[in-house]
Design brief:
The protein has one domain. Helix content is about 65%, strand content about 0%. It has helices spanning about 25-35, 40-55, 55-65, 65-85, 95-110, 115-120, 125-145, 150-175, 195-205, 210-230. The longest helix has 23 residues, at about 150-175.
Length: about 230
């Protein structure tokens, strides 16, 4: 199966840097989102991350390589989502378990081969995948970063959130066979077998994706230390 859904057909390496996605509806949506978040710098940064994910050549590359798709998803759930959460913080601490569970289910379900391949071959389903990944992650980060939340709870859920992603990454890294029909052919043009591309995607999910979670943990610990010592973090 060759992906011909939203991001278009898989590009060849020579064509990548001209493969911008200039979908008018997408650009209008991003501009409208900029208006909504214009008074919130983290929100504007989040829109910038979405532009990288959906407008830049990364969108086209993610049609070719599973590893690029993983980078795309990490940008949504571990970079754009917490930035939106900072832009629109929750007013009171609610349950962390429910948004954590929902975001975890969304991540794992959309990486099931049948669901993943279906989403990459159907535009409406593709956008359902993107919006549920981003929306559930933003809900989780918003609940996590609520002021007054116990730093112990925050750190536990940060570590747990990364651990479940790392587990999925490990499964993909050490899988014995390629799992995704959507990337059964295109990786060869990039000097990778589908299995190598899949393992690389797993490594991205397993290692580099941990950086945003590590940053969040450091900030939580620093803020907690500042409260204990009376220093404003």
């Amino acid at each position: 199966m060759i992906n011909t859904a939203y991001c278009g057909p898989p590009p060849l390496p020579v064509d990548l840097w001209t493969s911008f996605n200039l979908d008018p509806l997408l650009l209008i949506g991003l501009m409208a989102l900029c208006v909504v978040v214009r008074r919130h710098p983290p929100g504007l940064l989040a829109v910038g991350v979405l532009a990288i994910a959906f407008v830049s050549p990364l969108c086209a590359l993610s049609a070719a390589l599973f590893s690029a798709r993983v980078v795309h998803h990490v940008l949504l759930i571990a970079v754009a989502a917490p930035l939106f959460a900072l832009a629109f913080p929750a007013r009171r601490a609610g349950s962390l378990t429910v948004p954590f569970a929902l975001s975890t289910v969304a991540l794992w379900v959309w990486h099931l081969p049948a669901a993943y391949d279906a989403a990459l071959s159907n535009v409406p389903l593709y956008w359902i995948m993107q919006l549920t990944l981003l929306g559930s992650a933003a809900w989780f980060w918003r609940a996590l970063l609520t002021k007054g939340r116990s730093p112990v709870d925050q750190l536990v859920f940060i570590v747990t959130a990364f651990a479940q992603m790392g587990l999925l990454g490990a499964i993909l890294t050490f899988a014995a066979t390629p799992l995704y029909a959507a990337h059964a052919v295109a990786p060869y043009a990039w000097g990778l077998t589908p299995l190598e591309d899949q393992a690389l995607g797993g490594l991205v999910m397993w290692v580099p994706a941990g950086v945003p979670y590590a940053v969040a943990a450091v900030l939580v610990a620093r803020r907690s230390w500042g409260r204990l010592t009376g220093v404003v973090a």
